[in-house]
Amino acid sequence: MFDVLRSMRDMDVWVPRTVVQMRRLGVQSVPIALFIATFTGIVLALLSSYSFSGAVPLYFVGTLIGKTIMMELAPVLTGLALAGRIGANIAAELGTMRVTEQVDALETLAFNPLSFLVVPRVLAATVMVPLVVALAMAVGVTSGWITAISLLDLTTPEFLKGLRLFYEFKDIWFGLVKSASFGLGIAAIGSFKGLRTGGGAEGVGRATTEAVVISASMILVLDAFWAVILL
Amino acid sequence: MICFRDLHKRFGEKHVLNGFSLEVPEGETTVIIGYSGSGKSVALKHVVGLLEPDHGEVEVDGHVVHDLPRAELMQLRGSVGFVFQFAALFDSMTVLENIALGLKHQGVSDREIEQRVRESLEVVDLDGAEQRFPAELSGGMRKRVGIARAIALRPRYLLYDEPTTGLDPVTSSVINALMVRTRERLGVTAIVVTHDMRSAYSVGDRIAMLFKGQVRQVGTVDQIQRTHDPIVRQFIEGQPDASGDPEVPEFEETIA
Ligand SMILES: Nc1ncnc2c1ncn2[C@@H]1O[C@H](COP(=O)(O)OP(=O)(O)O)[C@@H](O)[C@H]1O
Ligand SMILES: [Mg+2]
Known about the structure:
The complex is a heterodimer of chains A (231) and B (256). Chain A is built from nine helices and no strands. Chain A has one domain (2-230). Chain A is 86% helix and 0% strand. In chain A, helix 2 (11-26) runs parallel beside helix 6, helix 3 (30-52) packs antiparallel against helix 4 and helix 4 packs antiparallel against helix 6. Chain B has two domains: 2-79 and 155-255, 3-Layer(aba) Sandwich (Rossmann fold), CATH 3.40.50; 90-140 and 148-154, no CATH class. Chain B has nine helices and ten strands. In chain B, helix 3 crosses helix 4 (110-123), helix 3 (95-105) packs parallel to helix 5 and helix 4 (110-123) crosses helix 5. The complex binds adenosine-5'-diphosphate and magnesium ion (MG). Magnesium ion binds at residues 40-41, 85, 161-162 of chain B. Magnesium ion binds next to helix 1 of chain B.
């Protein structure tokens, strides 16, 4: 931990590499996140109208979609998908670099692997995961709205009324703070597992699997943690 | 001068180095021979602080490596070129970027970098390969880029980990000639780790055999060729188990 802070001093090393990682870890994760969000929105609209079945005014569909997508589903489902994508990517790449002695080579060239390899990835994931989740929130709510007006007996004004009903600005930033912590955790675990890889190709496989499993579990635990702390 | 003093290193139960002591005289090429898995790479990695000894020390220019403050360790690493067994080129970067990376980090100017990259590629006979990626190169070419990357830093010491292992005889000779030329041109002190005796004889001034974690014998190429030590004889002549010693470690190819 202290090493990581110290390695932040080598600005010229990690700043340019962070931009590259933001593109690789963030931008390329957008399609999978939007795919998940679209289908979550559809299902949520149908599911809530089915559950309310006349007992609750139908415009509450908007409320439910807004709250659950922004506070829970967009961050957690996207987080889990990215635990697979980003976590595996980082662990496999750094693990391969470790077993092929590229990490050693970096060190012999007087680089600190933490500033060269880890800091850019962790920063990129911490910044980009919330941005991807923000997109997922927008797309999820939109797809819920389209489903509601086309498949349910709901008009746009009614949907918006429901959406605004209990909306607080906190809903969004709660989701985004969670997402940032997921991004940080995924990248840190992937980097740690990758750099600690031993034992050839088999070791890389093991490190990758462990990184994904641990990141996914971490997301669920952190999710509960933030609910306790911030709600 | 590089000096190993009573170096001990253990991985779990495995006592890899067990009182390894060796002096590497200035300006010479010292070859460390030994069976695969005997700890040659482990010994080499101690020189630049990639591994820390459990006991004992490595001294470079009078400084104990594992006691150096971080900044000075980095400075030391800048004066030691390390050529890895499988080249360890950064595969997301071109040949040019691989060689330029360390130079840039040392604050060498762009113009100087360009010149040094061209120069070192010339030394290894790979002019014109700047824009290629490691994956597009043959094993021998990759090793030569690895050497170019090390010499571009104008190091005072060069450490070669199995520079000819896995190469065909002709390519091996090219690499051997290259190591000799590098020493003559740059006047570096070198350690070459290998189990290729042809290479050991052609590049070495002195040869040390690592066996069971210690130096079994050290001497000039002549002395080693005329040795009466049965273990050393067996190794340099490549006889399978002539002494009947059941404890001679098996040949195992390890990447570690
Ligand atoms: N980082 C490491 N972790 C655990 N074991 C290691 C490590 N590096 C080397 N070893 C073990 O130390 C022994 C010597 O390895 P090495 O120095 O690579 O042998 P060689 O003489 O072939 O270069 C091997 O048995 C290897 O498995
Ligand atoms: Mg080795």
